[in-house]
Amino acid sequence: MELRHLRYFSAVADTLHFGRAARRLHVSQPTLSHQIHQLEEEVGTPLFERARTGVRLTQAGELFRTYASRALEDVNAGLSAVGALRGLSTGALRVGYPPSMRGLVVPALAAVLRRHPGLALSAQEAVVRKLERQLAAGRLDVGLGYAPARLTDLDAEPVFDSRLALVVARGHALAGVESVGMKLLAEEPFALLSRGLRVRARVDAHFAAMRFAPRIALESNAVATVLAIVRAGLAVTVLPEPRLSDAERLVVKRLSPAPRSELAALLWRKGAPRTPAAELFAAEVRTRAKEDAG
Fold it and tell me: What's this protein's family per the entry (predicted)?
């Protein structure tokens, strides 16, 4: 028995007409009849009743149809899966993320590219509200943001708790303090993200709850600029707890009391098919987030 026997059988079972089934399959009617006869010989019993008035399935044919349909569905699913995997060698991946999540996203993208160097990656770093609009418009495959998403046509899949933390230069006096309270920050200059950004709103809300008025030396809409000022020892900052390498010469410290966390999330467009490359990237993000939490 070969796959074509199942396909030919399925076509006749669907149409109950050898002529229409042959046209659907783009074969001659004698060829189709011969293939069905071969199948019936292998099964050991007639699968169709043939009469001048038409064709109908026998009881054995009805039973066999269930298993033949299931087998064809499994084969088609397998072909789709292999095709999707093959697509990873030449496809594209469009990712958007806020600057505060760069330390998580970049290693995940690097892991995807190592496994599938033929992929064309596009990484857009922007504020979350812009990323949500881009994703909803279909200009991104997957995004990073927060749960719940602002836009109702997006799904947010929580992946980790985003906690605010203090970031100081490695040689700063507070670098050796285990947990930093507001009193220790009273005389410190701050470099903060600009007002209007979601992270800045979180920072301001925490400072307001602590009745703390920071001395702001710099405001910027670029995380890289803020961290450069902190690295130079000219200020401290508060950001969602970043992943830092030794080369960045920065130290992350816990704040006391701890600010309220938010749920960082993978963002998907509702109802849109997820590309294999986007799913692979999402799996890398989940794995890294789990490792950090553990």
Answer: Belongs to the LysR transcriptional regulatory family.
Q: What is the largest CA-CA distance in the chain?
A: 98
Number of structural domains in the chain: 3
Residue range 201-207: mean pLDDT, rounded: 96
Give me the residues paired with residue 236 across strands: 190
Question: Domain for residue 79, yes or no?
Answer: no
Tokens standing for 26? 């783009």
Question: In the predicted model, what is the mean pLDDT of residues 226-253?
Answer: 87
The mean pLDDT value of the chain amounts to 90
Listing DSSP states for 164-177 in one string gives EEEEEETTSGGGG-
Residue 78 located in a structural domain: no
Residue 266: band (very low, low, confident or very high) from pLDDT cuts 50, 70, 90: very high
In a domain, 243, yes or no: yes
pLDDT at 275: 86
**pLDDT tops 80 at residue 53:** no
At 102, which CATH number? 3.40.190.10
Strands (E), 52-153: 54-57, 92-97, 120-125, 142-147
